[in-house]
Amino acid sequence: MRVLFGLKTASLRFGNIYGPRSGHKKSIIAQYIKQALNGNIIEIFGDGNQTRDFIFISDLVEAILLASSVNLTGEVVHIATSETSIKEIVENLKFLISTKEVFPPVRVKKSNPRVGEIKHNFSKSNKAFKLFGWTPKVTLEVGLRLTVDWFIRQKNVENQFEIGCE
Fold this sequence. Notes:
- By secondary structure, the chain is of the alpha/beta class.
- The chain has one domain (3-164): 3-Layer(aba) Sandwich (Rossmann fold), CATH 3.40.50.720.
- 40% of the residues lie in helices and 20% in strands.
- The chain has 5 helices and 9 strands, in the order ββββαββαββαβαα.
């Protein structure tokens, strides 16, 4: 049992969090969406086959709530959805944004890989199911759609405010 300052502790390790209200984040999904909606080029470093683990915000919140309802003292639990390539993220975003008539086609360029970048970084979350019954519910496709739609609504609101201030 791990006790820190008299408190029983456990650690939840999150994948890359994305979803609505992430406009302030510098995560790859938020960054790519903002670039695409502003007509900028999405830059992929390397071939796009590098993988990361992502988690939609509502799945994360559910995992935290479930974890807080059981005794996890001393446990380290990964909370993530699945291993996904950067190329897959970009292809999904290109498709989603292409269905919106007011935005230009998404442009992508590949650059040299970043020095020292990890090729594959992902987690297995089966321990979360075993300890407190959590499994992710939001697929990547649905999560990206909800996130893109939020960014578009946010952009429309910001544009209206800019026009109204002139």
